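PROTEIN DESIGN WORKSHEET
SECTION A - STRUCTURE
LENGTH: 77
TOKENS:
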């Protein structure tokens, strides 16, 4: 997420966008990238709005189930 948010910051810093605030629309993991850009990488002053669609803001129940099932195997390492 951090690496993609950094790429978003680099894109947003292009000269043709200088002085402009943008609207970000993000799907799935892109929403997490956008949140990281706005909240942790200082992008808030350059973003007018962030709209997320289908973003796992509170994690993923499927990922939780997979990790829970894999925990006994992972403990061996």
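SECTION B - SEQUENCE
RESIDUE ASSIGNMENT:
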């Amino acid at each position: 997420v951090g690496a993609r948010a950094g790429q978003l910051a680099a894109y947003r810093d292009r000269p043709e966008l200088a002085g402009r605030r943008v609207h970000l629309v993000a799907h799935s993991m892109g929403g997490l990238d956008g949140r990281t850009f706005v909240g942790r990488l200082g992008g808030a002053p350059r973003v007018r709005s962030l709209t997320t669609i289908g973003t796992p803001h509170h994690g993923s129940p499927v990922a939780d189930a997979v990790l829970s099932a894999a925990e006994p195997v992972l403990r061996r390492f």
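SECTION C - NOTES
Strands lie at 22-27, 47-53.
Residues 12 and 46 are 8 Å apart (CA to CA).
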